[in-house]
Amino acid sequence: MKTHLAAQLISLVATGVIRKWRGVTFAGAEITVPGTFARGIAMDAAAASGDQIAVATLGEVPVESGGSFDAGAIVAFDDEGRVVESNGGGPCGLAVEASTGAGQFPLIRLSLVPSVNQIIETATAAADIDAGQAVGFDNGPANVAGEAVKGIALNAALTGEVVFLCRGGSCPATSGAAYAIGAQLETDNQGRLITLDTGRLAAVANEAATAADQTKSVFVK
User: Fold this and answer.
1) Using alpha carbons only, what angle is made at residue 173 by residues 97 and 217, rounded to the nearest 5 degrees?
2) Is the omega angle on the peptide bond into residue 106 within 30 degrees of 0, that is, cis?
3) Does the reported pTM lie above 0.70?
4) For a 10 Å CB count at each end of the chain, is N or C smaller?
């Protein structure tokens, strides 16, 4: 058994079958959409919905690989909750060890949400919401430019499903245009973040964006 250092473990109730060392969603399911933002890595297997498992959210842990990558690579999840080299969507950590192919268990230094300084709230989505999209106080996408923002969606949700909102602290969000690190941000008409002009302040950029539709860390005020 490979040793690992998990700085933070939580207990989570599974909503379906989850394989050990795979990525887990905020809703308690195994990740099936590439680039999904994860709640953590399953440290136990769940045989059925209702099983309680330990999930690692910080530290260095083994994660099953879905392909080859070098040590030091930025990794994200594939459609089976395994780690692959990131193409820019929903990065989940840094590879401490290389992988030479699928089905290996390299150590990954996790960089997941929520961070220790986040304020998270759940809501029922009033319309379909994408992960990283700004959400208005009507619990739908913030699709009016510059509108007041309730939070940033940490998971994708269809109408009527539970959405986890980051209401304070650092979290990933989708850019609507290029902006500089430290820029004050507002929403565009698709719930993406752009440089503040005349709207309501939604967040401050922890990272610069070079174009629209990038996933970047922001600090929600």
Assistant:
1) 55
2) no
3) no
4) N
